[in-house]
Amino acid sequence: MAGSRLPRQLFLQGVAAVFLFAFASLYTQIPGLYGTEGILPARRTLRPQGKGPWQQLWETPTLLWEAPRLGLDTAQGLELLSLLGALLALGALLLPQLRHLLVYLLLWAAYLSACQVGQVFLYFQWDSLLLETGFLAVLVAPLWQPPHHKQPPQGGLAGALPHEALPFWLVRWLLFRLMFASGVVKLTSRCPAWWGLTALTYHYETQCLPTPAAWFAHHLPVWLHKLSVVATFLIEIAVPPLFFAPVRRLRLAAFYSQVLLQVLIIVTGNYNFFNLLTLVLTTALLDDQHLAARSGNSRRRKTPASRPKALLALLLELTVYGLLAYGTVHYFGLEVDWEHHTIRSRTTFTFHQFSQWLKTVTLPTMWLGGASLAWELLAALWRWTQVRGWLRKLWAAVQLSIFGSATVAMFLVSLVPYSYVEPSTHGRLWTEAHRLFGAVEHLQLASSYGLFRRMTGLGGRPEVVLEGSYDGHHWTMWFAALGPHTHSPWFTSLVLCLLQGKEPVIRLIQHDVARYPFHKQPPTYVRAQRYKYWFSQPGEQGQWWRRQWVEEFFPPVSLGDPTLDTLLRQFGFQDKSPPRARSSGNSLARALLWVRKQLSPLEAPTLLWGLILAVGAVRVVQALLGPRPSRSSPPPREEKHRPAPKKDPGAATEQAAPAPSNCNSSSQTTRRKK
């Protein structure tokens, strides 16, 4: 039974890194998004309703209710939370002593507090995923971190607490839910691009933030795009059940397939910390033995007794790989076209057949998760029986009861959002699971996921281009955004802020205000035009995109325009209550203002890249100065000492002396010399 101490530490470091970048990124945008002059002022979301403080906190769980007690407004409180969250996350990333349950509880509570006032800008799937992962990190993180020299050996279970692996199993279950649902929704949405295997011929140029590599990926052959879609379905639908495979090499193969997919997405598109966080979740598929082998510290040997077991595992692996290969070829009609040197692919099943299959397998996947969890519980109980000393055994039993109950409860809660992928299964789910989920739903402990459900922009990438003018005839373009304003009320607020010349909002668009076309005087008129964009063709030098005008998206408006006033009233942006003046009289408010002034000259990408480089430099120094693992061979096993026969002392001396012809001793001596 391979241990999970190293993967757990890797997971906790990864969660801390994601929290660090999430808080740092949020901090740089607070004035323009949530400040008193921002697009969606945070003060609009927290208004006392005459309820008791505890009821108010339970219904809207955010620490920002306490901001007025500190003499801060909501936006200043959000700045304080973001700074403290970034510092705590940085400490947990760099210092093992801070990878503590209470630290991760504070990180989760801080980000949950931010999401309560973040409105549409913090409603993305990666925010929900970070909240759920952050709460799992609370359960995975230890209450007490033993000194380095007292930690259990790598790859072993000696000294490990019985309950430690239980919460970490929930990370594997979350990864399964995320990937399986992401693959399934692509087909349940009936999107013709996914069913026709042509989604990637549009994806690279229509995704939110393509990278330069996306241009090159877009111009790959169509047959390769279709084959890549087949591989995506394979990795997201067929591979995730292997997360619970009893053969560790199958789990490792699943790990590397998930890593490959996420790395390719990162290379071709920017989805904030979503893919980085998914990579962090994949650590649940690793074990101490594999990580120790990667670092060169593994010295496990195969014994003759393990050979039949290894042969059985190999046969199981070959069977699984064979079934995956056969299923892929059969259901996607893979054929090699030798004449054109391509591989043809097409879906050979119908929507009805897939729906019936999904109805058949959704409940069994829950039972698969339940069986895997039951095995982990039995393993934890077995480890508890190995604990020596009645006091330690009692303390281990208390921890096992608490964390075991929490793990089972979290599993039951997660079944409800997971069942959304198949409506009939959702209706047949245990009533108590629905009730438990409803009680904690507002805490966002579990969410439903589904990446790239439908492929948008099939006729071209839709872009909304904002333009400003002083006279209504000569227009200047300076900003582009995605999405229709009727579905995004914040767009109307953005137009108002630009007409008013709000500098915090302008800095979201152009950090160097001097380069903003209307930095001397706000524009008199603002309008928006809709265009469709396509990647340029190979050979068109000097440009990445080509575009075509479609329609007027937002009519020309100015301050006091009836059209603008109507939209502001419709979306509730005409707030009659005047904003409370930002407090600057107390020391905490002055400190926040000073930090903002020090960091404001730095652009957000510069700040984030600076953090990455600083963390990397510190980790390198830690690796160079920290204790290095011993490369010497382990001491030989102690054998039971038998009482020496009363013979000649010289004979006893000869038996005690090592034989120079012993091969094992010779090889060990050679390794020590090397």
UniProtKB/TrEMBL annotation:
Protein name (Swiss-Prot/TrEMBL): Lipase maturation factor
Protein source organism: Phyllostomus discolor (pale spear-nosed bat)
One record GO biological process: protein maturation
The keyword Transmembrane appears for this protein: yes
InterPro entries xrefs: LMF, LMF1/2_C, LMF1/2_N
Limits of the Lipase maturation factor 1/2 C-terminal domain: 475-555
The protein's role, per its UniProt record: Involved in the maturation of specific proteins in the endoplasmic reticulum.
Chain segments annotated as transmembrane: 75-95, 102-122, 165-185, 223-243, 311-332, 361-382, 394-421
